[in-house]
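anyone seen this seq b4? input:
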Amino acid sequence: MKIGSLEFAPQSLFLAPMEDVTDSSFRFICKNNGADMLYTEFIASEAIVRNIKKSMKKLEISDSERPIGIQLYGHDINAMRESARIAETVKPDLIDINFGCPVKKIAGRGAGAGMLRDIPKMVEMTSEIVKAVNLPVTVKTRLGWDVDSLVIEEVAERLQDVGIQALTIHGRTRNQLYKGISDWTLIGKVKNNPRIKIPIIGNGDVIDGMGAKEKFDTFGVDAIMIGRGTIGKPWIFKEIKHYLATGDILQSPPLTEIIDTAALQFKKSLELKGFPRGIFEMRRHFSLYFRGLPDFKAFRLKLVTLDNPQEILNTLEEIRIKYCNL
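predicted toks r here
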């Protein structure tokens, strides 16, 4: 599979861009666990154009993360075009356009999945971004706004026609948000449309190797993008690849290794973001790394409230002492 000049092995696995999740520290961990393609958190185009510090910080990438894409969202064509030009200056491997975020404050303003209610504007915006940069431009979107407007087949053809070089499709409508079960049937129809020549990446509800194999075999997608299934389980990429290669289920890492991974991500977060932001933005991950452990409430409370780095590391060691010798 190729996206522009980027080459990927068959059945590659991509890390989905997620707000407040796919920061540089989490990308580092996912890369080490076998993710083939990384993305930044999605970034507001108008914030980039206005040079807002927090958003500009999200543009920072390193060579060790490659290949990596910067994902942008917005409702204004001029701002999206200009933000793509600015993003290009930090030399990502591609620019990805977010036409899929269902959150009301974004979609309600006509950005993200809100663009699915204005296909001509979506196509015009995409065309302007393709013309503005020299990098491959890709798109992530959904099946449609609701079940009465499943427009993804038309959208795929029109976006291909204006120059995108890959399309990621989440198998839900905007109105579904993340509820119910994702429907890959239309993803498969797009992939098998004889007019479609660009790679099609499927997204939605893949949480293990068996699920990934079923999606590849049934729908023929070129790659799978994994989002929520990675939070607290970044080794999911390794597990899926093992299953695809062998047909065997790779056991999850032992708890002591999970503790080491959480500690490594925490240290990386502090290194890259400093205090206290590196602590605050790690708390969501701490909660999910240890889901399922019995009698964990007191430890969870400490991990999400402590603001002293050494005390947090000490808590991780306390977890090791209590649970790893049972």
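The chain has 15 helices and eleven strands. The radius of gyration is 20 Å. kinda curious what u guys think
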